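Quick one, tokens below. Sequence please?
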């Protein structure tokens, strides 16, 4: 598997949470598409593209368990969530329930729309190490008021790696007649599940993280029958209210990343979703287990292995997280990133399929060394 990725030998990349390295076969296909598009120019887009696009959408429908008419290819998750949040039929006074740990740009979109439409936002502070799914579901449920209209749930929290029990939250919200918008940025193609089985009517995804498609492709899922409820963000006056493509009037966009989605799906299938999830969890548990009891090291990820997968985070008491991340890079050539986690800063560590346990051993020694020596 490792030979399928061409990664820089200059440092150990443990920051694979921003976007995914394209596997070599996907990157090769992407370059071929780019050449073809450039050579054929408008002929490609006007004559040949729609056949390719249909094949991409069919493959996405198969993978997600959704129907083609429930899927829209976007440029990233931020765009998917903007289409949903800005197009949702909110009325003044409606309430939206979200969590402090949700993604900043999604929160900002809600804040902007809340200011424009006089919505009330309620932010939950959820436990980093819950004892059960029911505890999380209960906290969302207790915060519901008669005004609550929408609940935002981040499936895999990008800060701590925590996995939220989305299907159970959606089932609870449905009993209250509340819509759920799921931010599935990190869960898609990291965890083994089908979007359609989450039960939510609205799900935003990016395809350039764990699926490994080129940068600049995302997905929006809207359950059949709910498309008509979302007003277009990008001007569209021609399409039917039930046609999801009414939400995708983006103008001219680069087709090569979209075409390579199919190659990324093929590559993903060659591994298998459950194998991928198991390997990523193995890698994170591998380093976590070795530093969990190290004095002054705090793990900022749930203890139970099934509550996280590839992403995990830590801090070292007495050393600022930024300093830890900088020293990891300058002294040990290990690249990580700092994130706000539960009111403090932590170093986020995200291995990928090409990460070796020897590389994680380097991380473990570096953490133990810094924890022992101090700042
Ligand atoms: C939880 C979460 N939501 C949304 C996003 C934004 O994704 P994109 O950059 O594809 O818009 C990210 C990106 O890191 C994320 O981690």
């Amino acid at each position: 598997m490792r030979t399928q990725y061409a990664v820089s030998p200059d440092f150990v990349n443990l920051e694979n949470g921003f976007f995914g390295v394209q596997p070599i076969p996907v990157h090769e296909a992407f370059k071929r598409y780019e050449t073809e598009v450039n050579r054929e120019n408008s002929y490609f887009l006007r004559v040949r593209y729609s056949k390719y696009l249909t094949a991409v959408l069919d493959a996405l429908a198969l993978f997600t368990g959704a129907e083609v008419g429930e899927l829209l290819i976007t440029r990233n998750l931020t765009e998917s969530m903007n289409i949903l949040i800005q197009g949702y039929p909110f009325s003044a006074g409606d309430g939206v329930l979200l969590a402090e740990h949700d993604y900043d740009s999604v929160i900002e979109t809600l804040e902007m729309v809340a200011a424009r439409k006089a919505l009330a936002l309620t932010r939950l502070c959820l436990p980093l190490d819950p004892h059960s799914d029911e505890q999380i579901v209960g906290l969302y449920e207790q915060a519901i008021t008669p005004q609550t209209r929408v609940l935002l749930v981040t499936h895999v929290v990008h800060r701590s790696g925590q996995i939220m029990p989305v299907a159970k939250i959606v089932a609870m919200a449905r009993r209250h007649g509340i819509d759920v918008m799921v931010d599935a940025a990190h869960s898609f193609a990291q965890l083994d599940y089908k979007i359609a089985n989450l039960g939510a009517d609205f799900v935003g995804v990016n395809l350039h993280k764990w699926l490994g498609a080129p940068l600049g492709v995302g997905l929006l899922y809207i359950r059949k029958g709910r498309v008509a409820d979302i007003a277009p963000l990008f001007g569209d006056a021609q399409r039917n209210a039930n046609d999801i493509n009414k939400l995708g009037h983006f103008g001219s966009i680069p087709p090569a990343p979209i075409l390579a989605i199919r190659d990324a799906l093929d590559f993903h299938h060659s591994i298998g979703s459950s194998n991928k999830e198991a390997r990523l969890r193995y890698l994170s548990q591998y380093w976590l287990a070795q530093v969990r009891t190290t004095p002054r090291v705090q793990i900022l990820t749930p203890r139970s292995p099934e509550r996280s997968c590839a992403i995990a985070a830590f801090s070292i008491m007495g050393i600022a997280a930024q300093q830890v991340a900088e020293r990891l890079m300058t002294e040990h050539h290990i690249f990580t990133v700092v994130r706000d986690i539960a009111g403090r800063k932590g170093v986020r560590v995200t291995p990928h399929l090409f990460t070796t346990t020897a590389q994680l051993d380097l991380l473990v020694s570096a953490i133990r060394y810094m924890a022992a020596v101090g700042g």
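Residues 76-78, 103, 106, 154, 158, 183, 185-186, 206, 218 surround pyridoxal-5'-phosphate (CB under 6 Å). Residues 279 and 352 are 9 Å apart (CA to CA).
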